[in-house]
Amino acid sequence: MDNYFSSLHKKYLTDLKRKKYLILFVQIIILLSFVVIWQISSNKLWIDPLLFSSPMDIFNLLKLRIGEGYFTPHIVMTVSETVAAFIISTVFGTLIAAMLWWHSFASNVLDPYLVVLNALPKVAIGPIIIVIFGPNIISVIAMGVIISIIVTTLVIYQSFRDTEPNYILVVKSFGASKAQIFKKVIFPCSFPTIVSSLKVNVGLAWVGIIVGEFLVSRQGLGYLIVYGFQVFDFTLVLTSVCIILIFAALMYIIVDRVEKYVVGNREFNR
Questions:
Q1: Structural domain of residue 165, as residue ranges?
Q2: 263 and 130 both lie in a single domain
Q3: Comparing C-alpha atoms, which of 149, 135, 134, 129 is closest to residue 85?
Q4: Distance (Å, whole) CA 43 – CA 184
Q5: For residues 207 and 222, is the Cβ–Cβ distance under 8 A?
Q6: What angle do CA 78, 143, 227 make, to 5 degrees?
Q7: Same domain membership, residue 177 and residue 153
Q8: What are phi and psi of 163, to 5 degrees?
Q9: 99: part of which helix (H) or strand (E)?
Q10: Are residues 151 and 25 in the same domain?
Q11: Pair (170, 95) in one structural domain
Q12: Tens of pLDDT along 82-118?
């Protein structure tokens, strides 16, 4: 009987691994197909090569400029700003959500304002941020934080509110204080959601930083995009976009691995 269940478990793991590789294979095929179609369309003039460039032009520009170290300071600047905005928005978004849960009156008062702020086009307040902090890196990071912190707060706060009421009743029956309820029930139950919200923050932080660099920066990948448009070098524009996609994907993969590791360890230790 043990051998039977063991063989079933091995078969399940094998099927799971096969499915994972199949998904990765299809993803790679889609990407390669897109690149090939893009290149052919540019060569055949189905699209305007001046506006849409081509994968080969982007590759040649990367090969030329990377050897010169042209992109390095811009990449370092943008990635550093994004990581800073990501960390700040995650930490303070969680703290604000905890405060809203702790003070129900404040949450009832502030809830509509948070919804309105979330709907507000953050680019509209970009000039105000520049006036407050000046045309520097702080303004860029502030833009990234503003775009991502509201969503983080709303997601985590909703997770706090959706905690199973029966869990809270059980600890209350043992005379637990509000602080103990939060520490022993609310936060642990919401921890997977907090970790998952990091994935959302990755994309939002990148959006905020690039928008901030559009407005004020003199260095960074967002600045290169603006500069490329100004000099009609659309290959530089698309090369910068591709670099952003690569680093955003790497950052997402790192957060995804952290989520699986942390959540998996929590499940294992229960």
A1: 54-269
A2: yes
A3: 149
A4: 62
A5: no
A6: 50
A7: yes
A8: -60, 140
A9: helix 72-102
A10: no
A11: yes
A12: 999 999 999 999 999 999 999 888 888 888 888 888 8
Cα–Cα distance measured from residue 258 to residue 196, given in angstroms and rounded to the nearest whole number: 10
Do residues 41 and 105 both lie within one domain?
Answer: no
> Rounded distance, CA 165 to CA 102, Å?
15
Other CB atoms within 10 Å distance of the CB of residue 234: 17
Q: What CATH number has the domain bearing residue 247?
A: 1.10.3720.10
Q: CB–CB of 209/140 below 8 Å?
A: yes
Which residue's structure tokens are 């369309």? 41
Q: Please tell me whether residues 108 and 234 are part of one structural domain.
A: yes
Residue 5: what pLDDT?
A: 55
Contact 204, 155 (CB under 8 A): no
Same structural domain, 190 and 59: yes
Alpha helices in 53-71 (DSSP H): 55-68
CB 266 within 8 A of CB 199: no
> Strands (DSSP E) along the chain, which ranges?
none
* Domains held by the chain: number: 2
pLDDT score for 226: 93
> What pLDDT score was predicted for residue 116?
86
Whether 123 and 207 share a structural domain: yes
Taking the C-alpha atoms of 237, 239, 242 and 243 in order, what is their torsion angle to the nearest 10 degrees? -110
Q: How many CB atoms lie within 10 A of CB 125?
A: 15
